[in-house]
Structures are given as structure tokens and as C-alpha cells.
Design a protein that fits this description.
homodimer; 435 residues; alpha/beta; Aspartate Aminotransferase, domain 1; Aspartate Aminotransferase, domain 2; 2 domains; seven-stranded mixed β-sheet; four-stranded mixed β-sheet; 14 helices; 38% helix; 15% strand; globular
């Protein structure tokens, strides 16, 4: 029988185009028709759906926003304290200065800070500042950077320009045509790509990339990007919205010994409470005094209080160390169990954002995995974003269930009965119209 | 002696370009060098600064975000409840559907809803949708609509295009040059302006405006705008981030009998907790399924829970009725007292957003007003954004103090001793570099 959450999802799709506010949380990405879709309560790695079924989250953990687990007591205490004391006022909250000092201690090469509430707008602020500082509009980019015009404009010339960074074949509908030829993609670990852009375009003022995500960086690649930025006088932006706070408390880039001119943080920084930060060198950030960048809700207090409490706790418990260890343990388990069950499985991503590709990305097999894991009490997909509550015990129990489900998948594959096992449609990949 | 907040402000300016995240909350806009700048606690209309001095807020009340007063018990209870139960998860929160249903009851002409966290990005979503739906990039606009490229691009051709809508002489630094000639201003209550744009530009696909703000609308003007939008097949967007929830529970437009195709809400909708909403007709909103508009923190639970609780309370206590009454009482008081003291004073704005212009906008006189009101326990400027805690008693006591301060101003003016009274620099108007 269809669950209450799935019913509500069908209702939502009629009044919210796309059903929700984030592609990665669409039910069709996990298990069309049968995904619980909505939650009443979440705590640690436990999630209760609309029918009060309890699951353990071994998937995207709020798309990587909650590395301390859901509803962390210490972060919530700090947040509730500022809500009780008023989280909005005509005056400013002092926590924004306190957080700035903390961030500048963590990223010692940076000298000034601005804030926003969401990742997309944080990156757009960084782009505005970079363009204002250089006087050049053109951008070379690598990786995912949000929904804004500057980024999607890459597809105005060729709607495959964002294929390897965002999604295949995205039409940049509603993005001004005049932005064509302002934004050029280069591939990760491929310095020739970037060199080619620089050779063909005079006016590249900004180079923006995720320093790490699905693959380990070739450190010489990162160093060459830095060198090119210096040579052409471009602002180098590292978007660490996803990679930040997982390999160390701060940006991952410093592990590789390469500093940007601007860094952007978000997601995990407030353990699920909305906050974004843009840090950079003073000579560049200063231009924010001369271009209008201003918004009411960027002044709200909760984001700053949450970030201070989250960063303090990450430091106190050495959270990145745990995230890496948990991710390695999960990845190792997947590899061993898939080998035992004769399933083809590849893994990718830094350990705290570990991913598998099952049977050469077979949608039916992945759907069956998600379905069977859900039946056994897990929110699961081919991604695990690790958190502090992914303990050895939680992971070992999860891997026992994966063992069971991989056995079922092997059986279904060998007997060619996958379709008979599937109760509903297969998962969607990428972006498609929902009905 | 300089207060602790003013000291912190000086520190902030060194590590945060512009000192904070919102022009309207900069200390130099109120009382340079002596404004308390930061708060520890805010409740109702009471604010406590870093030195625990207590003030009554008779100014912008969190730039209009808190029409139920600061830290409203009912809203905070709803917010803390969802924080305890987890405000971020891999699953979606059901409150976003509940809020959508509520909003669509309030704005009956609308059929679909999307959300964001800040006003600027909410309007940018509306613009993206309108451009995608019409296939036309050009925009005619009136009023203030945030910091984004689409809007600031109006000044690429002539840096006075935004003078009457945002600020005088703003340089659109960092906004791509290729956006020149995509965004055209028209003046409020001036249909000829809009007609001229339509006559000169073939490709206007979007008309965006604040239906009311500083002046009452000429209703025939609003109706003509609607008619023009229909005739040219443009999407009409009403930005009610500022005007919404003050004249009725919902958008002000329906008082004038004119519906848009898309409406944007923000600010007061969550009583200070960040939330924005974009509502529109299904045939237009549906295109959001085909252009990528997606962000992690738009899924966070607090904004939805806050908005549901805020709207319920606004309805239960008929908050707009109170906001209007309080605004009229304050405006009347200003007029009477200024007349008694032989001061020139004009008022403007809808009652819940009442404003005075003192002595033909004399900066020194306004600075002295702010300074003397602060000495007497008030956060005050020439704007009052009314809230439910601006009771008759609070307003009468405020007006007694205004009487006192207007007397002082008269004296200073008549004896030409304004400069002697002023302890610090005069207020800034508009946007200028801070040192």
C-alpha cells in the first residue's frame, strides 16, 4: 500500500512545480511511488516518516548539511538560545563578527568575510566580487555551482557544456541570451582544457572550481590552476560548499597546499541551519563596498550562532577524522560484499562523500537496492554522506543488511527476475519533468 | 564615551566589507560613531545593546521583518518545535506543502508555489520563471528588487536609472556588460513611462513592480499596467516583499483589485525567520520544471514552520488592522508636534511603513533627532515600521519624547546651534564607502 508520504508527494507535485525545492531530494531520485518522501522527526541518523516508521539514514544526510547528525543537541542549544533572545532586530547581531574572526583563523590566507543564506547566492556574491575586482566578465569553471544565471549561461552556446558538471542536456531556459560566451567549462584534473580557454579568451577574470569532489585532485593540476590565475590576473575561487568541513575543519584545499583568492562555504558549516560564507583577500573583498550586495535575511542570527557552535564541536571531536574513517569503512564494505556476490561495483568520491556505481549504472538494479534497503529500515541510495553518528556499530549493521540485499540482487540478476522484484518505476537520473 | 557596540562596529568594518550584510542596518545610517550597532536581546519592541542598555524600537523593526514584534512566543514555539524534531533531513518537510496550501487560499488567483530563503533570490526565481515562460529577456521595472545582476544591470547604460528605485549614482560594478539594455525603469503612478518602454522595446517579457510603498497607488495606473501586460503577453510580477502582510494578510494588490501573474513574498511572512515565497499561475510556474532552480537550504524546515505560525497569528489577531492604526497614530503625532514646534515635516508611505522628511531632508537635523531619541531610550530614525507591540501606550510615550526632542531641534535651529549639539558626524544617505 502507498504510504502517507508518497500520497503527500503526489499532492505536492500539483502545487509545487517539481514537487519540492531541491532536485536531490525528489522522491523519484530514490524510489518512485514508494519513497516515504516526508519526515516528522530526525535525530542523529534516525528518521521517522509520516507514518512514524523509523529508518536509519545511510544516504545523503540532508545532502551533506548535517555532518554532526540531525538535530545535534549542542548546535540546537545555541540556536534556540538566540531564538529566545530574538533572532532578528534593527541592530546587528554580534555573532557575525565572532564567526568572521573564527573563519579567518581557520583560513589564515583570507582577510575579509561576507555572508549569505544559501549556496547559490553565496557563489553569486563571490562571482560579483571577482568580476567587480577584475573588471572582466568572463569565467572559466569546473564543477557544480548552483542555479544562478552566471553558471547556467554556459549552456547557451551548447547545452552539453554543463553535462559533466551539473546534468546532461539542460536547457538554460530563462537565462538571458546575452550572457552567451561569458562562462566556459574545463574538466577536472585536465589543465589543457583550462589552458585552451585562456588561449582563446582574452577576458577571463575569474576561475572557479570545486578543489575536490568525486576524484582526488592531481596536486600539480591544482598548482597549475593557481599559477594560471596569477599569470592572467584572474580571481581564483574555490567553491567548498560541498567539500568543506569534511577533510579538515575548514576548506579541503589547504591539504593540497593551494590557496584560492576567495573561498565559499555552506552546507555543513551550520549543521543544517542555513548559512553561507564568502572569505577572501582584502584587496579583492574590499570591492564589495562599491557594488551593491545587501539582503535582509543575511543579517538573521541563527545561521551565525549555528555555525559557531558547529565549528566548535567539529574541532572538539575532530569530526573530519571520523567522517573519513566511516567513509572508508563503508567503501571497503561495498567493495568486499559486491565481490562476494559477483556484482560489478565501482566506488568514487572522497571518503566522507562516498558513492558506488552498481552494475555499470543499471537503473533497475539501483532501484531494487533502494527498495530492498528501505524495506529493511534504511534510507539508502548509491551515495553516503557520512556523519558523526555513523558509528562502527551503525555501519556494521548496515553492511550486514547490504550483504543480504546484494545477495537478493545477485539472485535477481542471475535469474533475470529484477523486474518481478520491483514494485514501482525505476529511479530518474538527472532532471526530468514530473507528472 | 563610545559604547561597546560602536567599538565592535569599528572592528567589524575591518573584516567585513561594509561592516555588515545589509545597507539599511549600517550604523552610519542612524548615528555614526554612537549607534549601539549590536544587540544581545530583542523582545516585543524592546532591544538590549551590548552594554545591556534597554531601548524601545521606534524605527525599522528588523527592516520590517517583525510585524508581530521581536521573538514572538507563538512563532518561536513553532520554530523551536521543528528544531527539536530536526530542521534538516534527506526527506522533505511536510510543512512546505501545508504552507503552499495556506498561501494559495490567501492568494486565490495563484495555483503554484516555490520557496527561497532571501528576498533577492526569491525575486530572481520569479524573473527566471517569467523569462523562461515568455522566451523574452527584457524587463520593465518599478521599485526596489534587491542586489542581483538582472536588476542592477539597469544602471549599465546610465547610472541614474536606479536613482529613484534604489539609490542615486550606483555603479553596477561586477554586473556583466552584456546585460546592458535588458532592464528598463518606469516611475510609479506614471503610465506614460511604461508605455514609452513598450513603444521602444519589442522584447519586454516581464513587468515587475512593487504595487505600493511610498505612495498610494493611482488605481487606474495599476489597472493600466495589468492591461499592458496582457496586451504584450508579458508576465506581471508584484514584488510584495515589503508591502505584503501589512495592509491585509497577504498581498496589498488585492485591495486595489489588480492581480499579478506572479507574486513574491518575504520579510514579514516568517516574523524574522528567513523565508521567501513565489506564487503564480500554473501555466507560468510550470516552466520551473524545465529550468534548473534548486538549492539545499530552501528545503530547511524553520522557514515554513515560522511562516505557518506567523500567518495564523496575523489572521487571529487581525494584525494588519493594528499596523495601520498604529502607523496612522504615529504619523498624526509627527504632523501635530512638528507644527507646534515650527518644524517643516512631510510624511509618506503606507501607514505600516510611515516615514517623515524633516526640514527638507536636512541631514544634521535628522542626525540630531536620532541622537536625542537614543539618549532618551529609543532606537529612532525617520522611518517607523509598525508592529503589534506598538500599542497606544508605547506610541503615546514615544510621542511625548518626540515632543521633547522636536522642542530641542526647534531651539537648535532657531539659535543656529545644531552643530554644537551633535556629538559625532552626520548620517550617511545612500551608499558610500565606510572607513
Amino acid at each position: 500500500m502507498i504510504n502517507s508520504g508518497a500520497k503527500l508527494w503526489n499532492k505536492a507535485k500539483k502545487i509545487i512545480p517539481g514537487g519540492n525545492q531541491l532536485l536531490s531530494k525528489r522522491s523519484d531520485q530514490f524510489l518512485p511511488d514508494y519513497w516515504p518522501s516526508y519526515y516528522r522527526k530526525a535525530k542523529g541518523v534516525h528518521v521517522w516518516d509520516m507514518d512514524n516508521n523509523n529508518y536509519i539514514d545511510m544516504s545523503i544526510m540532508g545532502i551533506g548539511a548535517c555532518t554532526l547528525g540531525y538535530a545535534d543537541d549542542d548546535v540546537n542549544k545555541a540556536v534556540e538560545n538566540v531564538i529566545e533572545k530574538g533572532s532578528m532586530c534593527t541592530l546587528n547581531c554580534y555573532e557575525e563578527v565572532e564567526l568572521a574572526e573564527k573563519l579567518l583563523e581557520i583560513e589564515k590566507w583570507a582577510e575579509m568575510v561576507r555572508y549569505a543564506r544559501t549556496g547559490g547566492e553565496s557563489v553569486s556574491i563571490a562571482i560579483r566580487i571577482a568580476r567587480a575586482a577584475t573588471g572582466k566578465d568572463k569565467i572559466a569553471f569546473c564543477g557544480y555551482h548552483g542555479w544562478h544565471d552566471w553558471y547556467l549561461s554556459a549552456n547557451l552556446k551548447n547545452n552539453e557544456n554543463l553535462t559533466d558538471h551539473l546534468l546532461p542536456g539542460l536547457n538554460p531556459l530563462g537565462v538571458p541570451q546575452s550572457l552567451e560566451n561569458t562562462c566556459f567549462p574545463f574538466n577536472y584534473n585536465n589543465i589543457n582544457d583550462l589552458e585552451e580557454i585562456i588561449a582563446n579568451e582574452d577576458e577571463i577574470g575569474t576561475i572557479i572550481m570545486e578543489p575536490v569532489r568525486n576524484f582526488d585532485p592531481d596536486i600539480s593540476f591544482l598548482k597549475k590552476v593557481r599559477k594560471i590565475a596569477n599569470e592572467i590576473g584572474a580571481v581564483l575561487i574555490f567553491d567548498e560548499i560541498t567539500s568543506g568541513w569534511r577533510l579538515r575543519v575548514g576548506g579541503a584545499h589547504s591539504i593540497y597546499g593551494v590557496d584560492p583568492d576567495i573561498i565559499v562555504f555552506g552546507k555543513a558549516m551550520g549543521n543544517g541551519h542555513p548559512i553561507g560564507a564568502i572569505l577572501g583577500k582584502e584587496e579583492i573583498m574590499e570591492i564589495a563596498q562599491e557594488t551593491f550586495i545587501s539582503s535582509t535575511f543575511w543579517t538573521e542570527r541563527v545561521g551565525f550562532a549555528a555555525a559557531i557552535a558547529t565549528i566548535n564541536k567539529m574541532e572538539n571531536i575532530n569530526n573530519p577524522k571520523h567522517l573519513i574513517k566511516a567513509g572508508k569503512m563503508i567503501t571497503k564494505g561495498w567493495k568486499e560484499l559486491s565481490a562476494e556476490h559477483n556484482l560489478s561495483l565501482e566506488t568514487m568520491g572522497i571518503p566522507p562523500l562516498t558513492t558506488f556505481v552498481l552494475e555499470n549504472n543499471d537503473s533497475q538494479m539501483q532501484t531494487l537496492f533502494n527498495q530492498e534497503m528501505l524495506d529493511r529500515g534504511y534510507l539508502a541510495s548509491n551515495h553516503v554522506y557520512t556523519c558523526s553518528h555513523h558509528t562502527d556499530k551503525v555501519i556494521n549493521e548496515y553492511l550486514e543488511v547490504v550483504d543480504d540485499v546484494f545477495g537478493l540482487l545477485r539472485n535477481a540478476k542471475e535469474n533475470n527476475t529484477i523486474k518481478e522484484y520491483l514494485r514501482g518505476p525505476t529511479i530518474s537520473k538527472g532532471f526530468k519533468r514530473l507528472n
